[in-house]
Amino acid sequence: MEDDIEVVGEAGTAADALARIPAVRPDVAILDVRLPDGSGVEVCREIRARDESVRCLMLTSFADDEALFDAIMAGASGYVLKAIRGNELLSAVRDVAAGKSLLDPVATARVMERLRNGGAEPDDKFDGLTDQERRILDLIGEGLTNRAIGERLHLAEKTIKNYVSSLLSKLGMERRSQAAAYVARRQAERRRD
């Protein structure tokens, strides 16, 4: 109903979004952080890697620093809560389309502080991991499943699951994808140094 905004496509899953966005080439992709088959943050990262001209506006139910950090690292231009009013969402889409960053200043300041302190997790948390947990963390970073890690290290899948739970707890993480992103950030920092 807006003269300057046209909806060019919709997708209900990450897989659909990854197929549809390159096909319809929107100026702005509005992505839910949580999708049935993955994460809007992962979709943002993939789409931005393919085509930096597509700006991504993340939509979420929760004001979650970890998700905001991941969204910024993935190249999102904006991050808004689903409680946003319709006219505010339209303004957000227009701002992002115009190249403006639409990120909450307070949350962004917390994320920037984390970046200045070496990333999402302080090194002392990494230093608290055992050698075996570090090996398993690296293999998570390679995208291996617990079963594949178990086969590689000649350990039972349940043993790997216990190691993964332990290392996630030590790193202050809840999800395996956070650990994979953490490995990628550490590797990128080592390449820069």
Quick take:
It contains 10 helices and 5 strands; from the N terminus they run αβββαβαβααααααα. The protein has 193 residues and is mainly alpha-helical.
Describe this entry's structure for a reader:
This protein is mainly alpha-helical and 193 residues long. The chain contains ten helices and five strands. The chain has helices at 14-24, 40-50, 65-74, 86-97, 105-116, 123-127, 131-141, 146-153, 157-171, 176-192; strands at 28-32, 34-35, 38-39, 55-60, 78-81. The protein has a three-stranded parallel sheet with strand order 1-4-5, with helices on both faces. Strands 2-3 form a two-stranded antiparallel sheet. Helix 2 packs parallel to helix 3, helix 7 (131-141) packs across helix 9 and helix 7 crosses helix 10 (176-192). The protein is elongated. The model has no long low-confidence stretch (mean pLDDT 85).
Rg over CA atoms: 18 Å
Query: How widely separated are the two ends?
Result: 51 Å
Q: Characterize the biggest β-sheet.
A: 3 strands, parallel
The helix/strand order is HEEEHEHEHHHHHHH
Number of strands: 5
Category by helix and strand content? mainly alpha
Number of helices, where a helix is a run of at least 4 consecutive DSSP H or I residues: 10
Mean pLDDT: 85
Low-confidence stretches: none
Percent helix, as a range, is 55-70%
Tell me the overall shape: elongated
Beta-strand proportion: 5-15%
Order the strands across the largest sheet as they lie in space: 1-4-5
